[in-house]
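Reminder: ligand-aware prediction takes two inputs, not one.
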Amino acid sequence: MLIPYLCPELPPAQKDALHKLVKTPLVYTSVALRNWQAFDKLKLYRVYAPGSYHTYFHLNAHVTVGTYRSTKSPRDPILVHMVRTPCKPGLPEHEQNRAGRAELLSTPFETFERNIRDQLGRTLKDGGFDPAGDITAITVNRWPHGYAPEYNPLFDPELLEPERPHVVGRAQFGRIAIANSDSGGGAYTDSAIDQGHRAVMELLHTVGQS
Ligand SMILES: Cc1cc2nc3c(=O)[nH]c(=O)nc-3n(C[C@H](O)[C@H](O)[C@H](O)COP(=O)(O)OP(=O)(O)OC[C@H]3O[C@@H](n4cnc5c(N)ncnc54)[C@H](O)[C@@H]3O)c2cc1C
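Here is what comes back for the chain with flavin-adenine dinucleotide:
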């Protein structure tokens, strides 16, 4: 999405296509708890909460790495992983992403903290959870440009693969080849690896011809 600013010489149609690759903003929040007795009492591991400030949270998975063993007892400290994708329901997908990004950049930590304490307090209160006593630390990690866009038949026009913005946008331009997960139309690392390989092969082909 930023490439047209780095390379204004690109053809207008390609710049337009690149501008359409709007990423989803993401917030991954970690909350340290003194114990997870409330989760145990309510027999909860993960919570989906559409419309809530964080729409999903779960207890950290049990991890065994080398000699490290994570907690098994509800009396032990643990981390809770919480997810928020800031958005503005009612708008088209990418406009929601842009509105969410603006919100993310202007939201103070105190707003996150208040919402985290409120949401965990309301969800877990029947398990005896007390936000003031049970929460020991909070980190909020914000990605204004998080997941790369993927084709969404709800909002995106029906286009053949060669006409889709990620394909038009990744066209080689002289000695510049374009990689990144967005150029594969997929949010995940496998897309980034595939596109990195494709971009390098384009350059090798160019060198081979000269
Ligand atoms: C919160 C979060 C969780 C994720 N979880 C997963 C997961 O569990 N599994 C999964 O497969 N994928 C996950 N992803 C997606 C994955 O991170 C991306 O698909 C992948 O990192 C994309 O790799 P990339 O090399 O294309 O881009 P990036 O990893 O974004 O790398 C681009 C690099 O370019 C640098 N850069 C930018 N502009 C310039 C410039 N002008 N000059 C020099 N350098 C520049 C940046 O600093 C950055 O280091 C997650 C993404 C986020 C945000």
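The first strand starts at residue 24 and ends at 33. The chain has a mean pLDDT of 95. We will return to this case in the review session.
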